[in-house]
TrEMBL record, chains A, B, C, D, E, F:
It comes from Celeribacter indicus. Belongs to the RNase PH family. The lineage of its organism: Bacteria, Pseudomonadati, Pseudomonadota, Alphaproteobacteria, Rhodobacterales. Phosphate binds at R86, G124, T125, R126. GO terms for biological process: rRNA 3'-end processing; rRNA catabolic process; tRNA processing. The gene is rph. This is Ribonuclease PH. InterPro entries: ExoRNase_PH_dom1 (IPR001247), ExoRNase_PH_dom2 (IPR015847), ExoRNase_PH_dom2_sf (IPR036345), PNPase/RNase_PH_dom_sf (IPR027408), Ribosomal_Su5_D2-typ_SF (IPR020568), RNase_PH (IPR050080), RNase_PH_bac-type (IPR002381), RNase_PH_CS (IPR018336). Phosphorolytic 3'-5' exoribonuclease that plays an important role in tRNA 3'-end maturation. Removes nucleotide residues following the 3'-CCA terminus of tRNAs; can also add nucleotides to the ends of RNA molecules by using nucleoside diphosphates as substrates, but this may not be physiologically important. Probably plays a role in initiation of 16S rRNA degradation (leading to ribosome degradation) during starvation. Homohexameric ring arranged as a trimer of dimers.
Length: 237, 237, 237, 237, 237, 237
């Protein structure tokens, strides 16, 4: 029933390649099917003004899409003079999600910026950014630990995200673009490795949903996040 | 236990005053406790480019805060040269929420813009904007119906929104600012009159939540939305 | 002869409601007929860079119109990426006008920002902003005096403003929108309580005027300002 | 008593050199003492959207200062990303002033843009821009008349402007920069050749003025404008 | 003598991988040593306004660097609200270079946009962008030819570019970042396959050069471009 | 053969008038035929952040065109909200060129900003800006030397620039606008007084060139620069 022929609760193939750029303190290229996102983590020994002298660190994120990551070419945001509303929404979400898994006191007064740049888009870019962004963050933090710059691990848990939606009347896991553009209801579910929720966003464009449907999507998401966490762990060993 | 002395499941006093500006096709001043939002609906006999010749109408929203609606003065967005990320996120949410209750074919090829300007802020401005915005929309649509410009009512249901959160370890309904700034987990719940969900956003800053907690907040939200719908109906008679 | 039926030298009804927002140090909602402006004054214990270490304070103003304060909806300046030329002109005028009534040494090295946001427009918004802005300023300064933060009153006099114009060949006082859009010549007159002038702006779009006509408008303006000063004083007792 | 040694009612030397750029339809370099402004008029066979199909023409103006036209270097507005408030105010004023002397029906549906660029500033740049701008406009219109593109002269009268102020307690004509920076009260007076007023702007920064003082400045302005009109006429013969 | 141990006239290893994104009409990832640039070509059946109805096509380019393509993180241009001067210079250069190898009449009235996004930077990103950009262009044009949308090949020749400079007193080929940041003189040389020049830019920061030195660099550049052309041809077979 | 009737190796008449504005530390109006550029040099006793505490000075440049310096009016960059790509390219080039002739240690930790504003354009504005900019710089530095603010002359040599191109198949010196708009190949050549090269930019739009042609243009450029240097020296005596 799904355009890709997948089962309702079947994720796309996940691949996470680490160490893809030589400059970043942590990096990976995450591929969730045909969605490919390059994630890099940059450590800076300073924090934003609102965190100065707080004894705590900060984790933030930025998100972008290459102009031809999409079916038809998008205008480059740098030439438009600003980031669009969707971009701003997404990068704020990634930052919040990653911070939920961080002990910012243990991190110490430094900032880690996670850049998520979509090389190729086929649905679910924000979820792939969070999942891949956590891997880049993990690798950057490992570097700090190895160098002795921090003593106790500030990462409390993996953070991963997956989208689910009602497609053709059925709850399905890990929407790709053809599904995403048709689904009346879809949600993004961000969780820790133990399944506790960090953020849930379920929205309907021209439709509504019941609490039962919401719970069905949450069940799928828990399954998906477990698989993503396993892929993260395999990548960062 | 709550700073305001309210019960865990008690809303702030709701007041909706309609017809507050003489120019707008629909308008109201909604007060949810000390949060006051002026909502106006403007009808234009044109649609955005992506909707032209579709036979369907469009409903969109814009959101703003007056500089001194907050405890300390905020910089005016017009002088900063752009709307901030939070503003963009909120106005996109309001627009999506209102559209979920609209039959856009019945509306016909015209646009209704709902402006939500926060006069005074004390938490929950986005939810008040949605609830008040729907009242402005209802009044504007009534004008179209009365004038015979449209024949069947394009509004399928009330749309209302409330925030809930975990405050001091307890699920509470309708967070005010002192609660919102302390709550580790909070969510915005947007529903139709019959309780079906349009959008759910639950996020944790520096915390996580379980599915049980999520369900407890949903229970509170259903109660709150029912009261808001009643207030809307009383206002637009 | 006037669309409103008023006498040539008759002001619109004036109402000034104070204390309309709980956060601002001073606030009022001024209504000059159907022109409604929300004015707030914010005290900050810092001055702009060019006034630092001068021992003097600063008073400045910002002006905005809600998108649907006008007959047809205006584009929100925050979405246009800048304040328009008219807005900039008006807020500079309000700031200059208010400063003319202030002893900035007595104010001490702090800044008061007066925000004037037009809720509903029917002509004369800049004059209403000055008149209402002074009330907000007066209330904020009263708070400083009461708290003992300043010792001698820095407000030397009331400041109020009214527009006059040549409408249908006759000098008329306090133009409303239907008059303003027809008048070939119109002026804004800003005065102290004793009638001394702070700023005069008389301009003609597609017309000119004689010195006699200018003096006739000044006579009307003196009458109008006296009434506005009385209304200010009644409001701030 | 004046820093320049001029009499109270004495203008600075005026020089108007025409035809200073080969591309513009009309141009002049106006020198009012050490204030030098290059004025060009550009004819375009189109009007702004709001004038289309009105059968009328439009005259507009733009103003700029070269970065080192002033004592210390100003930041270039093009690098700041916008025109400052003062610039916008001035160019709107120039445009309004010039339009007051134009029969826009006789001009026909075309636009004339007058650019006023300050090469060297020593006070009174906006007045010099208006006076010189009219000369550029006159020359451009002459070209249209000569070519037979328009039949009757759309320029109803000269338009010229001068500043006056209260300096060291005395009304003085044609303020230069040392006077302007000290004067508590100053005004810009724009008139037709016959002395009828187009626009009056008198403002006080940290001071006020009486109607008698206002009339004294108007007397001086009439004298000054008469001299400027004579210089304009001599230049455009 | 060179930091990398290369001979004076030795290029870095070149690799060109094609078909790296599924959406673009042509794409490649070019690696010149540690400089990696993703190049995509997008065909659109429209031309910019200045080319409409000319019967000719247009080729243009855009350039960007991912924030962490560099040793320390660069600010994302989209968040800065504009492309920097260096970016604008480079993308104009890429566009001019590629157009020099195109018969725009044969291309027909369509536009090809070549996006060059630097994934990892180690000197020579603009030259790699031109060399890789031509490959993406070649592949996109091949698609048009294969589909019969154009009949004769509009690509007249390969276009490739290399940088050379005076490093430690010696002319060297294909500067990497450690060399580029030390070289007093460096140039970018863009050529056709037959060695004819399209663009030469040689500049000195804090130094100058003789015509003999210029000719020595041109000799090296000819050698380098020949190798790049061979690599292009191998990639697009 | 040339539209102007000049010989192939003949420059346009050069005139350099110094001391044209009273505020700038150095200034000139350079006329290369009908290309007229006003150049001013401003000394500031501070350097940009990246040069602080380096013991070295900085020389930078800004470039602008008056809106009607061109055949048809250009939009003012200040109203467009940014400098165009061409402007940015040119001003970076002017700055680099001038710095090549400066001993920045001898200059001391101060900045000289050279503003080049095109009053009238007829081709070659960037070269005229460099040649005239150096004169303004020379005069400003003379002032520093005379005042004893610096001891040894930081200007190592004249810096001058000329454009050459292939017009109608022939190499020609000092392109004017009619030639520049037709030439398939053109270059800008910046040199010291002794002919050593600072920067060479040769580009072809829709054409290519051989090394022999490049050398022919360099021969012409050497002749032209020698004449420009003589004119500079005559102007600054």
């Amino acid at each position: 029933m799904r355009p890709s022929g997948r089962n309702l609760d079947e994720m796309r193939p996940i691949s996470i390649e680490t160490g893809v750029t030589k400059h970043a303190e942590g990096s990976c290229l995450i591929r969730c099917g045909d969605t490919h996102v390059l994630c890099t983590a940059t450590i800076e020994e300073r924090v934003p003004p609102f965190m100065r002298n707080s004894g705590q660190g900060w984790v933030t994120a930025e998100y972008g899409m290459l102009p031809r990551s999409t079916t038809s070419r998008m205008r480059r945001e740098a030439t438009q003079g600003k980031q669009g509303g969707r971009t701003v929404e997404i990068q704020r979400l990634i930052g919040r999600a990653l911070r939920a898994g961080v002990d910012r006191v243990a991190l110490g007064e430094r900032q880690i910026t996670v850049d998520c740049d979509v090389i190729q888009a086929d649905g679910g870019t924000r979820c792939a950014s969070i999942t891949g962004g956590w891997v880049a963050l993990r690798l950057a933090v490992n570097k700090l630990l190895k160098a002795g710059d921090i003593v106790s691990d500030p990462l409390l848990s993996n953070v991963a995200a997956v989208s689910c939606g009602i497609y053709a009347g059925q709850p399905v896991l890990d929407l790709d673009y053809p599904e995403d553009s048709e689904a009346g209801v879809d949600g993004n579910f961000i969780m820790l490795a133990n399944g506790r929720l960090i953020e849930t966003q379920m929205s309907a464009e021209g439709a509504t949903y019941s609490r039962d449907q919401m719970n069905a999507l949450l069940d799928l998401a828990e399954k998906g996040v477990a698989e993503l966490v396993a892929a993260q762990n395999a990548a960062v060993i």
